[in-house]
Amino acid sequence: VQHILVPVAAGLGDGVLLFLVAGGLTLIFGVMGILNFAHGGYFMLGAFLGYTIAGGRALPAPVELGEITLAALVVGAVGIVSERLVFRQLYKLSPMNSLLGTYSLLLIMEGAAQQVWGPNPLAQQQAPQLAGGFDVAGTRIPTYNVVLVAIGLLTVVFLQWLLWGTAFGRQARAVAEDRAMAGMLGVNAVRVSVIVLFVGTFLAGLGGALAAPMFGVTPDLAATFIIQAFAVVVVGGLGSIWGSLWAALLLGLVDAFAVSFVPSLSQVALYVTMFLVLVLRPRGLLGRPDAI
Amino acid sequence: LIVVSVALVACGGSSQPQGSTSSGPPIKIGFLDTMTGSLGAVGQATQDGAQIAVDEINARGGVNGSKLELETKDEQANATATTQAMRDFASEGVQIVVGFTSSADCLAAIPIAQQNNMVIVSAACADRSLQTTKFSKNFFSIAVNTDEMTAAAAQYAKDKLSDVKTWNNLSYDYVTGHDYWTGFQNEMKKRDSSVQFNKSVFFPLTETQVTPYITSLLSGVPGDKSQGLFLSTFGGGTIAVARQGQPYDLFNKFKVILNVGGGEDVSAAIGASGGPITYIHDYYWTAYKGSINDSLVKQFQSRPKQGPQTDGPHTWVYQGYTAIHVVADAIAKAKKSDGQGVMNTLPGMHFQSAKGDISFRKEDHMMIQPATVFTCQGASSAVGFTCPTTDVIQPSTFTPPANPTTS
pLDDT value at position A138? Predict the structure, then answer.
């Protein structure tokens, strides 16, 4: 049991962070049709803002969760500004050009972060209540990983409600289906895009702020996480939120089990899994043309 | 004689007082280092040290009547950018270049130096091949190289940690990471045949989620604090290990965590909650006594800090500072400031540095110098850590024999 529980806890925690980035990425692609390469930049920004708001200090757990939420909200606001300044210019471009445009935005965000926070890795202290772990069947489970999984589940429930239980969700799905037709039917596609970008970048910022106490915060995080997030989106199926969730958890677990049982394959396990999924199911796990 | 000696040492060696005024044209020294990107802190701190040395030397009248001028270019941790910058220096008539973060970039720069009679005095290039298979008469390095570092770590383990008979490894999964662990094992076996090697885990340089690697490591460790951990990570990787190791009480599972590759910048980043890490590194500012070290520390503390936020000069600052003083001493001795003159003068030359007497070995240009040990842990100080224990390992106990194979 011990040999199984350890990689399960690590893989699920990693998977949730991946999902928070990939979920927003696939949401933006599903509704706006933009492959947002800059999305890793919002993750990085969330990590830096989390560090800055907390001042790097260990805060009590409720205060830390509040600080993380505040950082994510600020990142969401930056997302709205980005929509106004950058993304609105990309809607009419080809997917390749919009990809290049968002890649440029990623580089700008990395450079700006280095100017503001410097190139040295920063470390956010963990809340004392969340820094430890507890034992299950003789296996140490990190408390923070359990918090991450809980936040991941709450996020899924929230997105499910937002997209399938609200008027906004109906409008977003309509825009995803046919932007022009939705506009003719009275849906304000620009407003929908702004909200979608806010939600998507909020999720990335949330992931970054949650990740800040786990490792060194550097501008490199932007590029590191976007590559893995794209792998998740491809495996889950482009535009599918649920696909992203299952793919993120699958890839997180595959990576953790590979490290534990076949370390020599740990660096390729993620990509081998991606290859196998695409061979067996080219659209990804839950990919279909109308998926959100 | 004593008064004269003290005065000379206080002035930082033979390069310093050449008169109170300078009359000749300035001597341009190229400074090529990684000033931007994730390794930008290295170049910025090295430049800080180099500038302290230039200001110090110029305040005393310069060298041979000429003031020193640093001309900075960005290495970008990139061989192509390095090569271009070296060509630019050559076309501008700059024949002495100091700095460099990456050994790969040093290797890329050497052919340009050879073609143009330039001399390179690297601050941080530490790959052993630079003194063996890739040896060049145009190249010198201030850094303790990878072989020396692992030998110094083994020597310290034998001398001061003799009750640790089993060692484990957690390192980055790249060539230098593997070289460090292999080198440490070989050097330990030479010194103590009873030492055992237990669990070894490598993780990718860019990995952020290191929990599975930590649990894999701990699955083979008894956790009774009888064994040691050899850790050759640096920067964000060490922070991730410290943070994600907290729930597993990682640092308390070992009697000692011995780190090569990192430094107090890591303890500064980990902050108050960090457990003790014993670093084997080039330099730590409280480990050395003497007027040159005192001067470096005083000037560092009086200037705005670049790079890691530490109370005293980081190794990179020391390396930049020493590289300039070494060059200035060589110019003063050669009485000329061209690349060839400095290149011919440096081999076998002794210098008074912040670490005491150091020299470039004639055969392979390896710097004969002490290595430094310091143990840091989190504290509620302004910088978030303290390093109360330091030690110095003398070069006679770890420096390998000369073996250059290329010139």
Answer: 81
**Per-residue pLDDT tens over the stretch A191-203:** 999 999 999 999 9
Q: 109-128 in A: which are within 8 Å (CB) of B?
A: 114, 118-123, 125-126
Q: CA-nearest residue of chain B to A16?
A: B209
Mean pLDDT of B261-268: 79
- Contact at 8 Å (CB) between B12 and B80? no
Please list every residue in chain A whose beta carbon sits closer than 8 Å to the beta carbon of residue B273: 58, 125-126, 131
Q: Dihedral angle at the C-alpha atoms of A64, A69, A74, A75, nearest 10 degrees?
A: 110
Helix (H/G/I), strand (E/B), else coil: B391: strand
The token duo for A38 is 């800059």
Which pLDDT belongs to residue B307?
A: 56
For residues B232 and B377, what is the distance between their CA atoms, to the nearest angstrom? 17
The pTM score is 0.82
Q: What share of chain B is helix, strand, coil (3-state, %, to 5)?
A: 40, 20, 40
B341: tokens are 């003159």
Counting residues of chain A whose pLDDT is more than 70, the rounded percentage is 98
Contact A34, A52 (CB under 8 A): no
Cβ distance B17 to B9 under 8 Å? no
| Interaxial angle between packed helices B211-218 and B235-245, expressed in degrees from 0 to 180 and rounded to the nearest 10 | 60
Q: What is the ipTM of this complex?
A: 0.81
User: How far is it, in rounded angstroms, from Cα A194 to Cα A82?
Assistant: 9
